[in-house]
């Protein structure tokens, strides 16, 4: 950085020149400022002063701003598109919205972009053009399948069919006047179909979902997609910035859905997200990880009393499924209550990224896209059968340092040693042994625990129809043989779970 050196030198020089009299010193300071500014600009690239820079908006700073609740636009968008939605939001919903820029989401941003665009162009024409033109006039009676995809209206923009874009959702304007917009990736397919939404980092410290959403979204081809996929990699940006599960006010965003426009800060954020994004979805996958130093085998949680959700779980391929309606205030439960089938996909631990969890999640979502008829290119699991489990938690009866003897995904028998808890003061060591024949679906990372800490989440495989709420399972402990026999027939579990276990270890 040569400018700094030059500035320092000129500053020293000016100080020397400006001996002691005050007015002269002020003058030299002014000189210094102008000279350093000019230097900085000139050093940019030689023509910094001449280059056209957009003029900043002239704000009436002495006038209070009344309100501007129009949905904020993407950060990269030009000023004209950013202003348009607020005007339009006042009037009819059906009025034309600014068209979102078509980005090549399946191509990484960077030097590769120009070549990838030109490469795509020919393929785009050949696949997209014939479909609507051939089908529309030819069929008069069978018109449902032939229907052309519609533009997707979301967050103050219109995303035309066969395009991909990045929009932004902003929960509120902070009092500092700073927006913290959250990226919303949209791929609107060339052909009609459902709108699948992927949400991650509702808990800001859960990172695997962020990467999962990125991989899924940036691999979609709008030309080949039926329906649309909306991906929100980081819902809780506040928590994400601080590596925290919570919002800045220590509230858990995932206990405040569907939210309240007049409620607490968390409630307002939840309400905004629910109405601006979730209400546009036909189905939602909410990505999470274990919480508080626990890790989870990739697993789905869903209300299996809802047939639509059962159908959704079957779309994920060979993945563990647990039944739970979801706590009140969770995004999942609120969405289901609003008629939008939703599952939670849990994988891995908070604060860390692990490849095994991410790749399993990506594979599961791609299989779902395939099963929903939205894409055809992903065929990843030969026999995509989910594996259903009842489950129970085994807790530590004492406090101390826990070390595990089992690994995530391991099959255990009743009486097997799961881990030990040693009191660092008294050196008293206690063992936690499995009370069931089952599988380790979730477990504590090695750490200091208090008595009562839920350390091992043991799954007991069962047919989907026999899955109950996790709490009801505790008293039943079928023998090893029984578990195998019971589960093999209805869900063809032996091969599936073996394959899955292998996949997990890869
Ligand atoms: Zn979570």
From TrEMBL:
Alphabetical keyword list: Hydrolase, Metal-binding, Signal, Zinc
InterPro entries, per the entry: AstE_AspA_cat, N-alpha-Ac-DABA_deacetylase
Keyword Hydrolase annotated: yes
Sequence ranges of Low complexity compositional bias: 75-88
Family matches, as Gene3D superfamilies: Zn peptidases
Region (Disordered): 44-139, 477-506
Cofactor: Zn(2+)
Succinylglutamate desuccinylase/Aspartoacylase catalytic domain ranges (all copies): 192-370
Compositionally skewed regions (Polar residues) per UniProt: 94-105, 484-496
Origin: domain of life: Bacteria
Signal peptide: 1-40
Protein's recorded name: Succinylglutamate desuccinylase/aspartoacylase family protein
Organism of this sequence: Microbulbifer epialgicus
Organism placement in taxonomy: Bacteria, Pseudomonadati, Pseudomonadota, Gammaproteobacteria, Cellvibrionales
């Amino acid at each position: 950085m040569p400018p700094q050196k030059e500035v320092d030198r000129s500053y020293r020089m000016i100080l020397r020149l400006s001996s002691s009299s005050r007015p002269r010193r002020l003058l030299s300071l002014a000189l210094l400022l102008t000279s350093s500014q000019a230097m900085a600009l000139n050093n940019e690239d030689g023509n910094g002063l001449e280059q056209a820079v957009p003029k900043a908006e002239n704000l009436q700073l002495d006038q209070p701003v009344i309100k501007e609740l129009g949905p904020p636009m993407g950060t990269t968008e030009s000023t004209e598109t950013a202003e348009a939605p607020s005007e339009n939001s006042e009037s009819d919903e059906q009025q034309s919205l600014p068209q979102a820029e078509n980005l090549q989401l399946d191509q990484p941003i960077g030097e590769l972009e120009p070549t990838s665009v030109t490469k795509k162009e020919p393929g785009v024409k050949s696949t997209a053009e014939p479909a609507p033109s051939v089908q529309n006039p030819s069929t008069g009676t069978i018109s449902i399948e032939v229907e052309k995809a519609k533009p997707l209206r979301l967050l103050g923009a219109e995303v035309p069919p066969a395009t991909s874009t990045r929009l932004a959702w902003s929960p509120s304007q902070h009092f500092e006047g700073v927006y913290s917009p959250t990226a919303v990736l949209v791929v609107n397919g060339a052909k009609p179909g459902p709108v699948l939404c992927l949400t991650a980092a509702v808990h800001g410290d859960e990172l695997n979902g962020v990467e999962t959403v990125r991989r899924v979204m940036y691999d979609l081809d709008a030309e080949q997609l039926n329906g649309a996929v909306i991906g929100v990699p980081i819902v809780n940006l506040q928590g994400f910035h601080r590596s925290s599960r919570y919002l800045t006010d220590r509230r858990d965003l995932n206990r405040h859905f569907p939210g309240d426009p007049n409620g607490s800060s968390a409630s307002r954020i939840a309400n905004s997200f629910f109405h601006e994004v979730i209400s546009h979805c036909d189905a939602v996958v909410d990505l999470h990880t274990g919480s508080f130093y626990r890790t989870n085998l990739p697993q789905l949680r869903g209300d299996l009393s809802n047939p639509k959700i059962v159908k959704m779980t079957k779309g994920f391929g060979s993945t563990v499924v647990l039944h739970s309606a979801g706590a009140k205030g969770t995004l999942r439960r609120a969405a289901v209550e609003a008629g939008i089938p939703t599952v939670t996909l849990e994988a891995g631990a908070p604060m860390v990224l692990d490849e095994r969890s991410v790749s399993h999640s990506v594979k599961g979502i791609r299989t779902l896209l395939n099963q929903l008829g939205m894409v055809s290119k992903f065929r990843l699991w030969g026999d995509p059968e989910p594996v259903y489990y009842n489950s129970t938690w085994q807790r530590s009866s004492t406090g101390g340092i826990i070390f595990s003897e089992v690994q995530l995904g391991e099959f255990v028998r009743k009486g097997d040693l799961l881990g030990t808890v040693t009191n660092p003061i008294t050196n008293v060591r206690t063992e936690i042994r499995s009370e069931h024949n089952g599988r380790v679906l979730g477990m504590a990372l090695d750490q200091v625990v208090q008595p009562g800490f839920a350390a091992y989440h043991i799954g007991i495989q069962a047919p989907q129809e026999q899955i109950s709420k996790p709490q009801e399972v505790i008293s039943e402990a079928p023998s090893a043989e029984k578990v195998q026999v019971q589960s093999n027939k209805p869900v063809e579990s032996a091969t599936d779970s073996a394959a899955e276990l292998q996949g997990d270890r890869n």
